[in-house]
Design brief:
The chain contains ten helices and 15 strands. By secondary structure, it is of the alpha/beta class. It has a nine-stranded mixed sheet. It has a six-stranded parallel sheet with strand order 3-2-1-4-5-6, sandwiched between helices. The two termini are 38 Å apart.
Length: 361
């Protein structure tokens, strides 16, 4: 890591310029004060051209080795390449003396995640996991409702990340090769499990059902996970590419009231459209028609309960926290140990589905 003065931006090397790198990481890094996107690693010539077009000052590299050869010119490495490369690339970066951000899932197993965490601690380096959905608008709103006691004691948490994609798209995310760490359990499941653990604490029991529904699909595309938390809360989590009618994103039932929220945070769609935080008017702002509702004994679909203004989502806050951690020693926004706890659940879910048992953690 280079020695930088307080006013000098931290130089970031980004490995991978597919969906994660180009839509999420690069724009958010570029939008964060105190960070500058220095290098993008991709072997794809079209993606190299795309990166240069979007970020004219960026330095392209065809391989990660090219980036690590000049590790002393960087202050942070972001690993946004396919899942199976996360552990080896993060390990190389840490051994090169570089702090690391790794896209989720940080690893294929909790043991690997804890090994990475131990290496980072041994080297005195930041290792953070990109769990951007902690900064979704609905999640931020729900956390506020819980903090304010609006729902009372929560009994059941339902979370859905559902899509209607009847035809497989292919690629490593839908590969049947276990080495690729594909499938929805580890993809969208990483998000919904992480959110449930952040909201309601550690899980003690895990039950799951995973199915391969679509013709030609090679890995799970319709998955359900049930968690019992140490607090007594039960979480029911759904991730699916086969949902012809989408359910509520959140339905949260408590002793005083329930909260129901439909629709996904608009930040991803805005980023895909080329909008950028801090430059696009209304970035991340949700229309009032999409607000969730809170109440008791009534259906939100018929106007029951009262509307709750949705807080504005803020993915850029993740990288702002990373910059603050590197500059000032502030808290790591998402630790590898937290990611390992989520992987404990995902591994238990995979075993539960395979053996048709409830797994105790």
């Amino acid at each position: 890591m280079t020695g930088t003065s307080p006013g000098t931006p931290l130089r970031v090397g980004l490995i991978g310029y597919g969906l994660a790198g180009s839509v999420f990481h690069a724009p958010l890094i570029a939008a964060t004060e105190g960070l500058v996107l220095d290098t993008v690693v991709t072997s794809n010539p079209e993606r190299q051209q795309q990166a240069r077009a979007e970020f004219p000052d960026v330095r392209p590299a065809a391989t990660a080795d090219e980036l690590f050869d000049r590790a002393d010119e960087l202050d942070l490495v972001v690993v946004a390449s396919p899942n199976k490369t996360h552990v080896p690339l993060a390990t190389t970066a840490l051994k090169a003396g570089l702090p690391v951000v790794v896209d989720k899932p940080v690893a294929g197993t909790a043991a690997e995640a804890r090994e990475l965490a131990a290496l980072a601690e041994e080297r005195g380096l930041l290792l953070s996991v990109f769990q951007n959905r902690r900064w979704d608008n609905d999640f931020l709103t729900l956390r506020q409702l819980l903090a304010d006691g609006e729902l009372g004691d929560v009994w059941r948490f339902e979370s859905r990340f559902e899509r209607w994609r009847p035809q497989p798209k292919g690629g490593w995310r839908e590969s049947g090769d276990p080495a690729e760490i594909g499938g929805l359990l580890y993809d969208l499941g990483s998000h919904v499990v992480d959110q449930a653990l952040v909201l309601f604490g550690p899980a003690t029991e895990v039950y799951a059902e995973t199915d391969v529904r679509r013709p030609g699909a090679l890995t799970d595309d319709d998955t359900f996970i049930a968690l019992t938390h140490a607090t007594g809360v039960r979480s029911h989590l759904y991730v699916s590419a086969t949902t012809a009618q989408l359910g509520p994103r959140f339905r949260v039932l408590g002793s005083k009231a329930g909260y129901v929220k439909y629709g996904l945070d608009p930040q991803e769609a805005s980023l895909r459209d080329g909008d950028r935080p801090g430059t696009a008017a209304g970035f991340g702002v949700e229309p009032e028609a999409m607000w969730g509702r809170i109440g008791s004994g009534e259906s939100p679909l018929t106007g029951g309960g009262r509307p709750v203004p949705t807080l504005t989502g803020d993915y850029a806050a993740y990288y702002a926290a990373v910059a603050q951690s590197l500059r000032e020693g502030a808290a790591n926004p998402v630790t590898a140990q937290e990611a390992a706890a989520a992987l404990d659940v995902l591994e238990a879910a995979r075993r539960s589905a395979r053996e048709k048992v409830t797994v105790t953690l």
